[in-house]
Amino acid sequence: MENIIINIGRQIGSGGHIIAKKLADEFNCTLYDREILNLAAKESGFSQQFFEQNDECKGFFKSLFNFRSPIVGEGNFYDNSFSQEGLYKFQSDAIREAAKKGNCVFVGRTADYVLRDFKECINIFISANLDERIECVSKRHDISHEAAKKYIREHEEERSSYYNYYTGKKWGHSESYDLCINTSLLGIDETTAFIASFIRKRFNIPAENVNKQKGVFE
């Protein structure tokens, strides 16, 4: 079979990154979360810091004029223009190139849309109850529950706007994914096991056939 590609969309504080890592281990995949920003930076000549500052955020020009470190390598403008779409193109190219190299798990960054023409893709959205997400973000950033709620609202508005703008789909809506699941119901470990079972059935992969070497199935 071809490489399997698992794309994970996630609400903030839902445990999506943890689940993505567990699935990467389970299926011997390379995990790409923030790592894709480094690949995009190398592809474009832009500073990785610039990609990080504007990660999953549609309005990157808002921060452009306050950016103090070098953002572009000499002679590396995309199509001789500087645009948000140019940055997105660099990131999309990096995602596609990574997907060709072996089994992989991508977290966010519209990878489900970017890789829509790849046959062995499965698109999953991870959610959780708001109270649990607030508690998680509050602990992670050492902030009050009210501040955590504001953080979630503001960052998810940006994430949703970014996803909807580039894909023409709706972030977090079931029709945009193959499986949507709430981690509050089963917990992280059982949710991961459920998703892993779903992936095996989707790709007809017996559990005993997962090879120990990354990117290889018997």
What does this structure look like?
The protein has 218 residues and is α/β, with parallel strands linked by helices. It has helices at residues 16-26, 35-44, 48-53, 61-64, 84-99, 111-114, 130-141, 145-167, 183-203, and strands at 5-10, 30-32, 104-107, 121-127, 179-182. A five-stranded parallel sheet has the order 2-3-1-4-5, sandwiched between helices. Helix 2 (35-44) crosses helix 5 (84-99) and helix 7 (130-141) packs across helix 8 (145-167). The model is unreliable at 60-81 and 211-218 (pLDDT under 50).
Name the descriptors.
globular; five-stranded parallel beta sheet; 218 residues; alpha/beta; single chain; 5 strands
Topology diagram in text:
Layout: E1 5-10, H1 16-26, E2 30-32, H2 35-44, H3 48-53, H4 61-64, H5 84-99, E3 104-107, H6 111-114, E4 121-127, H7 130-141, H8 145-167, E5 179-182, H9 183-203
Parallel strand pairs: 1-3, 1-4, 2-3, 4-5
Helix pairs in contact: 1-9, 2-5, 7-8
